[in-house]
Amino acid sequence: LPDVHVEAPTGGSAVLAAIMLKLGAYGFLRFSLPITPDASHQWAWLVIALSLIAVIYVGLVAMVQKDMKKLVAYSSVAHMGFVTLGFFVFSDLGVSGAIVQMIAHGFVSAAMFLAIGVLYDRVHSREIASYGGVVNTMPNFAAFALLFTMANCGLPGTAGFVGEWMVILAAVKANFWIGLAAATALIFGAAYSLWMYKRVYLGAVANDHVKALTDIGRREFLIMSLLAIAVLYMGIYPKPFTDVMDASVAELLRHVALSKLP
User: Fold this and answer.
1) Does the residue 262 lie in any domain?
2) 64-110, pLDDT tens digit by residue?
3) 235 lies in a domain?
């Protein structure tokens, strides 16, 4: 996945992260859970273990990346670990949180990749070391990038927080230690996201390439504004998203609970 993101154009990365990355989770939701509920129960421990590996190990891998696209790609894998974890704790809160996380991650990851694309179009480099002090030359863009970075961290009030928090609460109710392990992802997420933002945007202007940058134009501002509105709206008022799925989630879990296993 990270290598695909590195090779893909900006639009391809946005579509891959926002839509195609969700196909596996959608398969669990539409096929594995309703069609094979017994197998889902029997192998839930394995999926939960793999989800925690994705959340913790991949988060650590993201912290050592030097390429911005690779860092965000690894963070996407970590965030999707919350989705599979939410599905396999078999609770209303967990499944609803997983679906909310899928939607939120679509907005946040697309915004992150588009922000990287804005810089790449101007400097033609994705290396974190190629930047520094972007806020001095692109203040409007840096403000949008800060919002999207905070959402990627899971800051309350942004779309990135709601689904993850619902899944963590559901995991704690199922098993305290699983929930505690999942919660460490919030720490790792803040570490690699804020580290990247600090290196790229803050401080003094690093070089002539950064000094020559021009702030985003009207077209880019409009795109960033639409994504920012979606990220904030979903983070501040997620009720419309959860209400529309409550009945379907309850029916799915009722069906999954009808296990034929002794």
Assistant:
1) no
2) 899 999 999 999 888 899 999 999 999 999 999 999 999 999 999 99
3) yes
* Max Cα distance, the chain (Å): 69
Among 48, 89, 17, 81, residue whose Cα is nearest residue 256: 89
pLDDT digits (tens, 9 = 90+) for 32-75: 888 888 888 889 999 999 999 988 888 889 888 999 999 999 99
Compute the distance between CA of residue 68 and CA of residue 215 in angstroms, rounded to an integer: 19
* Residue 90, C-beta contacts closer than 8 angstroms, at least 6 positions apart: 41, 44, 174, 253, 256, 257
53's tokens = 């590996």
> Rounded to the nearest 5°, which phi and psi values hold at 66?
-105, -15
- Name the domain count of the chain: 1
Tell me if the pTM is above 0.85.
yes
Residue 61 falls within a domain, yes or no? yes
SS3 67: strand
